[in-house]
Amino acid sequence: xxxxxxxxxxxxxxxxxxxxxxxxxxxxxxxxxxxxxxxxxxxxxxxxxxxxxxxxxxxxxxxxxxxxxxxxxxxxxxxxxxxxxxxxxxxxxxxxxxxxxxxxxxxxxxxxxxxxxxxxxxxxxxxxxxxxxxxxxxxxxxxxxxxxxxxxxxxxxxxxxxxxxxxxxxxxxxxxxxxxxxxxxxxxxxxxxxxxxxxxxxxxxxxxxxxxxxxxxxxxxxxxxxxxxxxxxxxxxxxxxxxxxxxxxxxxxxxxxxxxxxxxxxxxxxxxxxxxxxxxxxxxxxxxxxxxxxxxxxxxxxxxxxxxxxxxxxxxxxxxxxxxxxxxxxxxxxxxxxxxxxxxxxxxxxxxxxxxxxxxxxxxxxxxxxxxxxxxxxxxxxxxxxxxxxxxxxxxxxxxxxxxxxxxxxxxxxxxxxxxxxxxxxxxxxxxxxxxx
Length: 437
What we know:
There is one protein chain. The protein is an alpha+beta fold. Helices cover 31% and strands 23% of the residues. The protein folds into 2 domains: 8-217 and 346-430, Zn peptidases (Aminopeptidase, 3-Layer(aba) Sandwich), CATH 3.40.630; 220-343, Alpha-Beta Plaits. It comes from Qipengyuania citrea.
């Protein structure tokens, strides 16, 4: 079912030509009402799981959130499985499965149990003021989990869940994935290969006050650059016998990156650097130390940064260009770069565009505006990217809010309603399709 990759701009107006939408069916009208009626119960569930600290390294807390959710899924007829990840340095993942009619669309719903806020974080609690609430993970991604449950509950009430083939994958380490990454994401990738459609429930993208559709997300990788040179008295700098020193070689490489790598949807940030005699990268790779004197040519320099691209082809092509730039040394210097691809890209495809078209038919039936594709350069990587090579997908199906990953993270509570209604109707319609026919 995988559709070919297309240029992002090609599909921006694709849904403009979509056929006129039909009216909501009676069961879809029931979904709309059920989600609305369940709003306060959904907020109560959000508060309950927000008050459980589930920083990625708080294994007991991540498991406690899963334990709080298991009864919610089982009440809807799902079988649940806790997939232990202690061998990979993390708590585990919660998978919930529902078997429906044979041959119909297989749907994968993706969210995560963990947050960036560890137990020692001063940002705690759940504070509601009207239709907003502040708390760690309310938006990213406990609010997304609540959207999933609200949508499934509405489908159950309306009778559209019976035929639906669904796997819900709630990872316990999205904010800081376990190692090795292949093992940490093995179960998710297998679910992606099983599915026909994947929906990612991180936060809703909004631009100029309008809800947007996420059909693409960029990759997230990293690089480590090390330069070395002969040290000596600074009076010899630039000479044939002394060369240019490690810092000038580092500066040459980074500035050449800046000048020669620029292209659409690509970024390559330098997170930190250090140079001197010597410079050392810390064991965890998150800091560096150095020392030196102004009259000594520096012997070493280190820098680390990230690399984000829209397609795997762009990833690999840019990485080769980076390696070529690094290899063109200044006299008297050496340099090495190590590039690691971690989160793959979710490239824009015909299939992803077609899913957004279907969602926009639902928006029309609900009396809402069509959702334009959100620029992928404005979103980070996510777990849905791991399944993007195998299935069509939409991301950004979670609630709206502000301040993800920061103290004061806020959710717009009533956005749970519109996202759950969209999701439930979309899944209900997909559950009646037979993608292999």
